[in-house]
Amino acid sequence: MTYRFSLVLxxxxxxxxxxxxxxxxxxxxxxxxxxxPTNAEIAVTRIDFENDVAPTLAEAIEAGxxxxxxxxxxxxxxxxxxxxxxxxxxSEEGQTKDKAEVAS
Length: 104
Hints:
By secondary structure, the chain is an alpha+beta fold. Helices cover about 40% and strands about 30% of the residues.
């Protein structure tokens, strides 16, 4: 399963930092110039992650945090997580619950 999320960084990253981040992470990353949601005058970088290696969304996000920590003076003031598709396990749980409700 591929987990998708975005991290907003506290500033724009350099080309060298982009290379370092890509080398540090196993996820596919897209770098986008953006502004802070709370202050449109501050230029930042947003990284869109697609992680199909991590077993859970939480571990995918933690891996993203770890990659960012590899760069000194870089922090994460924002995290955005869109709705994720249901996993096979979630579907099975829902079917079991539905069957239990029908039986009662």
